[in-house]
Amino acid sequence: MNSLNKHFQRLSQEIDAIPIADAHEHIMERCESLAREVDLFDLFDRTYVKGDFVSAGMPVDDWVREEFDPEEGWRRISPYIHRVRNTSYYRSLMGAFRELYDFTDDELNDANWRELSDRIQAANKREDWYHHVLKEKARIEVSLLHRTDPDVYGTEREFCVPVLWVDPLLYGYANLVLLERKVQRQILRYGREALQKEHGLPLNSFDDYLALVDRVFRTATENGAVAAKSVAAYRRILLFEPVGRSEAERIFLKPDSEVTPAEAKAFQDCIMHLIVQKTIQYELPFQFHTGLQHGFGNVLANSHALHLNNLFFTYPEAKFVLFHGSYPFGGELSVLAKTYANVYLDFNWLPLVSPAVAERNLAEWLDTVPGSKLEWGGDCQHVEAVYGHVLQVRRVLARVLSEKVARGDFDEEVAMDLARKLLRDNVWEIYNLEQKRGDRTLDW
Ligand SMILES: [Zn+2]
Which of 144, 181, 279, 283 is most buried when burial is the number of CB atoms within 10 A of its CB? Predict the structure, then answer.
């Protein structure tokens, strides 16, 4: 065995045993997954691989099932499997099927899909399924949970702690803003009416609005939120220019129909600066979606982390966590995290997008960025997908670190210290979880 292999074997074994603190998930509430029929089709529908099926020509409407019928589901997806089975999203799920469902065949086909689908269905009815997959198999101590519904604070703390999703606060420039969720084919109602309904506060003046922003942060921290998160990059450019409060107030007071797109952006710019200030006041690291957006028809250039640059130097006390390794802008991210003490780099989702890219980027980031500033998360809804991703990230780390050890960059002890930092310790430190756990009666 050559030295690279030797290092890889040893490091793999140790990395597989590291408990994980997972900086980002969308895991479905346990009661929801118990209530719904989770079969093979549903797993594909609620994981990233669906995007690959659509990209390979499967009509989006074919994902809408009027009634639960595993056979019908298989008829719809099976013609496309040979087109997508090379992608990392797909391979990662296959890895999870092997480990969780004893799926031993090389590929899915007409003869074996049904047994797998039945096993998925039966397992997801098990009371202990989440515990088995997340705790026993994936060895995840805690996941930071981003969900878009207000119930996020009621989530079962055995698995997840909540993150405050701030984007609805950006739409206060109008009473009603209709936004399309392309992947789910839904129209969502944003704006002051929705905020008023959710938070039960009057919004007659701009001062009322500022008070609501504060209330949202206070409620979140009182309910155990450990971070704030924005996915603004799905809807607009990440450049938030300084806009005075009087200008935002003027826009706030205009009738909906008279607010121009430029004014809507200016209002959002002003509120985003206020939100950053609130993250400092409430001591919440601020997670930003950057880079590749999931789904169809998004504008990649909007999501470039370089647009956020003015926030980094305007707010040195804020902690900015840039998500997804900003794929494909990993090189720029490396410079930002190196240059700014308040910029952290989270490569959640990245090993799932591509282990090759994750390895390439990590090799570079470990040369350039302090090891204390890197973290990982899963970014999945189904626990099977989380587990498939955990298998991938452990392998990615073992590969990158063993190569660095074989090249003589550092020894195995430093490599293991880095692995523990990236998979666990940094998340505890960056989000101050030890103190937050002590301060509040949380179950984790
Ligand atoms: Zn996410």
Answer: 144
Are 39-123 and 136-439 in the same CATH fold? no
CA of 26 to the centre of ligand 1 (A): 6
Q: Quick one: pLDDT at residue 437? A: 77
pTM, 2 dp: 0.95
In angstroms, what is the span from residue 230 Cα to ligand 1's centroid? 10
CA of 107 to the centre of ligand 1 (A): 28
Domain ranges, ordered by start, for the chain: 39-123, 136-439
Question: Which pLDDT does position 434 carry in this prediction?
Answer: 87
User: What CATH fold (topology level) applies to the domain 136-439?
Assistant: TIM Barrel (3.20.20)
d(CA 431, CA 24): 12
Strand arrangement of the beta sheet that strand 228-230 belongs to:
164-165, 228-230, 286-288, 320-322, 343-346, 374-375
DSSP state of 191: S
101 CA → ligand 1 middle, Å: 26
Instruction: Find the angle CA(71)-CA(76)-CA(80) to the nearest 5 degrees.
Output: 130
Is residue 99 within 8 Å of residue 391, measured between CB atoms?
A: yes
321 strand-pairing partners: 287, 344
CA pair distance 305, 286, nearest whole angstrom: 13
Q: How far is the CA of 24 from the centre of ligand 1 (A)?
A: 6
CA quadruple 228, 324, 377, 408: dihedral sign: negative
| Whether 431 contacts 227, CB under 8 Å | yes
- Which portions of the chain are predicted below pLDDT 70? 1, 183-184, 438-444
Q: What is the DSSP letter of 300?
A: G
b vs e for 339-361, b when ≥16 Cβ sit within 10 Å of the residue's Cβ? Answer: ebebbbbbbbbbbbbbbebbbeb
User: 348 near 318, Cβ under 8 Å?
Assistant: no
Distance 23 CA to ligand 1 centre (A): 10
Fold of the domain built from segment(s) 39-123: uronate isomerase, domain 2, chain A (1.10.2020)
Dihedral of CA atoms 146, 152, 157, 158 in degrees, nearest 10, equals -60
DSSP 8-class letter at 61: G
